[in-house]
Write a structure and sequence with these properties.
Number of strands: 6
Strand order of the largest sheet: 3-4-5-6
Order of helices and strands: HHEEHHHHHEEEHHEHH
Largest sheet: 4 strands, mixed
Shape: globular
Radius of gyration: 24 Å
Number of domains: 2
Length: about 375
């Protein structure tokens, strides 16, 4: 028996015919392809667009559907849907190069490009004009338009582009992509800056024991350090964690593919998969878990790190704040600060690495490189 006459039992079998079921699956697949570009406006996109058909293969915005956006800002909602539809139409053009499609897709990942909207209220969030501009150029694929000095090459230990190979220079070098993934240009320093800076500070604040020294970390079968840090919390019922940090460059030729154009987390998912393949067997033997903290040079966050130590902590803090009668803005602001801090560190390190190949005079003739790109303002925790 059902609790009320209004409740009716679900049908045991679908009443839709096989052709209709197939049509529904095609439509849902089209929807998922569109929503992969930006997860943040999924609900409003579904509400304000007509369902795609196998013939049109796209959702069509319809202004008469605005009543479905009740409770939201109508103009902003419609603008979001129109911009998304324009982006989808652009990326589906056969004339658009694959690398441009990939860049657009990866730029929509969580926190990617967050430094654009970061107010430099504290020293750890402040960028010089040169740092800001070079990351702006990288984010929008404009590094290739910059001039590179003819006598500049990668750092001498680099085997791919040493000085003797300057006559064989390629677009990978000229665009700055090589510098952002070259170990000789300092990928390890960028990696350690993120690990020992914002990540260590946040995990310590959460109550974790954060150890990166070799005697405190886990060793693999070859006696080498497994992961970058060993994280544990005696006050939380969860397994100890092997944390490994990676920062991927979406413009790297490895990530220029149809999968990256279709999914905004392709780069981070691939890196996370590689880390788990490398450490999962060892972690299972030691009853630990592996968390891959994967970021992109755009500032995007991978799901593995975001959903494991970050989301649960801030959700718990938000619920506690609401239970105490607070708005929860302080918790939201604290998380935004964390993400902005990570973005600023990545930006500073990207600029330092690009400095090994890019002409410092480009786009900076009237800019003082040591000056902040915006004037510092008073720090504020007030609710907007």
């Amino acid at each position: 028996m059902y609790p009320s006459p209004a409740c009716t039992p679900p049908p045991l079998l679908s009443t839709r015919s096989p052709p209709q079921q197939l049509r529904d699956r095609v439509i849902e697949r089209i929807r998922k392809t569109e929503l992969a570009l930006d997860w943040r406006t999924e609900h409003i996109h579904r509400a304000l667009t007509e369902a795609p058909t196998p013939d049109t293969a796209t959702s069509i915005p319809n202004i008469t559907l605005l009543p479905r956006a009740a409770g939201r800002h109508s103009q902003r909602s419609l603008t979001q849907v129109l911009q998304r539809s324009a982006t989808i139409a652009f990326t589906r053009r056969s004339s658009v190069p694959l690398n441009v499609k990939c860049s657009i897709s990866q730029s929509s990942q969580h926190s990617a490009g967050l430094f654009f909207s970061t107010v430099p209220s504290t020293a750890d969030l402040r960028l010089t004009d040169q740092e800001f501009l070079q990351n702006y150029w990288h984010r929008f694929g404009l590094l290739g338009a910059l001039q590179v000095l003819a006598d500049r090459s990668c750092a001498s230990p680099c085997r791919e582009f040493p000085p003797r190979r300057m006559n064989e220079i390629t677009d990978t070098f000229l665009s700055g992509t090589h510098a952002l993934q070259c170990s000789s240009c300092g990928t390890l320093k960028r990696h350690n800056s993120v690990l020992k800076g914002p990540i260590a500070a946040n995990l310590t604040k959460q109550g974790y024991n954060f150890n990166i020294e070799i005697e405190h970390t886990i060793l693999d079968d070859d006696g080498k350090k497994a992961g970058d840090a060993y994280v544990s919390n005696p006050y939380v019922d969860e397994p100890k964690t092997i944390l490994d940090v990676t920062i991927s460059c979406p413009t790297c030729p490895t990530y220029i593919c149809n999968a990256a154009a279709a999914s905004n987390d392709h780069c981070t998912k691939l890196a996370e998969k590689n880390k788990h393949t490398k450490y999962d067997d060892l972690a299972s033997k030691l009853e630990c878990r592996v968390v891959a903290a994967v970021f992109t040079t755009y500032g995007g966050w991978g799901d593995d790190f975001k959903k494991t130590p970050v989301d649960p902590y801030y959700k718990k803090e938000f619920k506690a704040a609401r239970k105490n009668g607070e708005s929860g803005w302080a918790v939201i602001n604290d998380r935004l600060r964390y993400e902005r801090h990570v973005a600023a560190v990545i930006c500073r390190e990207n600029s330092r690495m690009l400095g090994s190949t890019l002409d410092a005079r480009c786009g900076a003739r009237a800019i003082q490189r040591s000056a902040p790109q915006r004037s510092p303002v008073a720090d504020s925790d007030t609710e907007p």
